[in-house]
Write the structure tokens for this entry.
Amino acid sequence: MPIHHSKVPDFDSLPEVKGMPQGCAWGLHDDSGKRDQCGTLNLLTPDVVKEAHKEVLKGESVALNWKMTNVAKPGFGRKPLEHRVFDLAPFKAHDDEIHVNTQAGSQWDGFKHWGHQKTGLYYNNLPHEDIIGTLDNGMHHWTERGGIVTRGILIDYVRYAQRKGIKYDAWTRHEIPLSAIKEIIAEENLKPRPGDVFIVRSGFVKRYEEATDEQRVDGIQKNHNYVGIEGCEEMIKWLWNNHFAAIAGDTIAMEAWPPQGHWCVHDFSLALWGEPIGELWNLEQLAAKCEQEKKWSFFFTSAPLNVPGGVASPPNALAVF
């Protein structure tokens, strides 16, 4: 069986992996010689799920997928959504076809999306050259383990910044420091638990919704600087030592983009830990609901696309109160 969260080493105690930086978790969840495919999702044991279920008090839910048509002109050369509806004559019926780049809207980054940039190795020592032709690290493994069911916690940086008088543009490389995150956690009366999905509202979606079409092109297609959590040693160690099952947010890259220096969140989270990263989630209704309830934790579910060998997926995520 994969290792229980109570026995997961802290960052500085993780065993050395030859040729990789300290903090590499390859092999930690391998089971009797079988290569692990699910990384930190292994922390979602039955006891974690049953405890998370206690968050359901009202039976009310909020969907976290943003409209798939919203990023009509994606950045980084990605194609926008194509949707075709067609008649099934002679039947009185219709089908539709959807062509989508899974990085062009609300998404989970899977473990084939991003490798450790210095070595070109992906989660659990999968070489870059093998990615296209293998099912290893594919999104379907998340489905086969039962999807993602746990507790989610929302860190509402937008609300915090407004209260503190912090002025910033979500379409600039504004870093959300760990000190602010810790303050917000205390203010929201949260206690992070192993297996939580850690979700940060940065204001990216709010900025997009309030912008004109021209501003959206300038801010997303032409500009590649975005708000996100700070990539630094303190943040990386804190994320690992809290043993989150996944991290997510409403911005393009979760971390302040572009990354700078050694402490790239994508490198550690996706490539070295096998920890999913959620991006471009619509957290506006969730933030309003949390504010209304004065409760920033909730039951969380996600059913990614069951595509064998898939690189990423819409999250199909729900927060239940």
